[in-house]
Design brief:
The complex is a heterodimer of chains A (about 260) and B (about 100).
Chain A (H helix, E strand, L loop, with lengths): L1 H44 L10 H28 L11 H4 L6 H4 L12 H9 L10 H5 L7 H20 L5 H26 L4 H26 L3 H22 L2
Chain B lengths: L1 H6 L11 H16 L7 H5 L14 H7 L2 H14 L4 H15 L1
Classes of the chains: A mainly alpha (about 260), B mainly alpha (about 100).
Chain lengths: ~260, ~100
């Protein structure tokens, strides 16, 4: 009878976890869409001015467009690192994309504190066996840092907005007004994606649910051998161990799906 | 009973959302935003560390501006598209073919 309640609790946990997985997938596909749209608008709708008095404008405008499109790429990579709790700037795929942004606070922070330390042998053994108290805190790099590490995707978006702003008001080489509107809207959508993915990451399952579910599963596992021994005799011992492992696997699926 | 506690997620119970943390996060983000003046957009384009054709070329933007013409830059962009990243569609086809063959 207890089995019914356990099944209900575990299926609830798995379905909420899978919902998060799907939400995350939707946000990233929306980011692909948005990056393509913004890239197309920047590349096609910003002119490279051909001014006979200032011949250098053509090349400068071209380099400006390339730099802005690289920032769209930088946003996705920076978002990836942020969602994996990796606050540093000098990762091989990120360093050359955001190194030139003078404002990044993570760039000013002490980089040596932002690198993973090699875990000791006992800890790696514990992590491999899935023992709960040996799991390392995924947020530990952020916890260990003392400076304000900033928000690199957000800073990238601020630079992109500044670029669009100046192209429209100073250089005046983005003449079609509705494309200006679309560019600003796309940057807004990217900011929404940043907020939405952070929401998925940072919302904990309500404590009451996780406590009650683990209490029920442990109670079930404790009572299980007494129910089985009358039918299976000595096979009950390995059968209980296997069943306990499977049930704990289901409840730990939640932590895998949560990211 | 649990449902009644969770119905209102904004209170002070253990089961409720950490609103203080959210407020601190908003404040920190706004502080980070206002820490830099974004008034001179050309600064980030002309900064020495800007490498516009990364990863095809590690050359900084000053080199591209001074030594190469517009045609050179366009040719480099074409080269970057053909050499740098393979289309992800090809890799997906390869992996799904492997699955079909293994099955």
């Amino acid at each position: 009878m207890l089995g019914f309640v356990v099944a209900f609790g575990l299926s609830f946990r798995c379905s909420t976890a899978y919902e998060r997985y799907n939400d995350g997938r939707k946000y990233w596909s929306q980011l692909t869409l948005c990056s393509r749209n913004l890239g197309r608008i920047i590349w096609l709708n910003i002119e490279e001015r051909e001014d006979p008095e200032h011949p250098e404008y053509t090349k400068q405008d071209l380099i400006g467009k390339i730099s802005a499109i690289n920032l769209i790429n930088a946003f996705a990579v920076a978002l990836k690192h942020r969602l994996r709790f990796e606050p540093a700037v000098d990762y091989p795929d990120l360093g050359s994309l955001v190194g030139h942004l003078s404002g990044t606070m993570a760039g000013h922070a002490d980089q040596s504190k932002l690198r993973h330390r090699k875990p000791s042998a006992m800890k790696s053994l514990g992590e491999r066996l899935g023992v709960t108290f040996a799991q390392s805190n995924p947020r530990k790099l952020i916890k260990r840092a003392e400076d304000n590490l900033g928000n690199i995707p957000h800073e990238v978006l601020a630079h992109l907005s500044a670029y669009i702003n100046k192209v429209v008001t100073e250089d005046k080489n983005m003449p079609i007004i509705c494309t200006q509107n679309l560019a600003i809207t796309d940057i807004r959508i990217m900011a929404d994606i940043l907020g939405g993915t952070e929401r998925i990451l940072n919302t904990p399952l309500p404590l009451a649910y996780s406590i009650s579910i683990s209490q029920i599963t442990w109670a079930y596992i404790v009572v299980l051998p007494f129910q089985l021994v009358s039918k299976l005799n000595w096979i009950a011992i390995p059968a209980t161990m296997i069943a306990a492992y499977i049930i704990r696997e289901y409840s730990s699926l939640r932590s895998i799906f949560d990211h | 009973m649990i449902g009644r506690e969770i119905e209102n997620p904004f209170g002070n119970d253990v089961n409720d959302l950490p609103l203080e943390t959210f407020c601190t996060e908003i404040a920190a983000d706004l502080d980070v935003l206002t820490s830099t003046p974004y008034s001179d957009y050309k600064k980030f384009i002309n900064d020495m560390n800007n490498r516009p054709l990364y990863p095809l070329s590690f050359a900084s933007v000053n080199d591209w501006d001074k030594e190469y013409s517009v045609e050179d830059i366009r040719e480099a962009l074409r080269a970057k598209a053909t050499t740098h990243t393979k289309s992800i569609a090809i890799e997906r086809c390869r992996t799904s073919n492997a699955d079909i063959e293994a099955a």
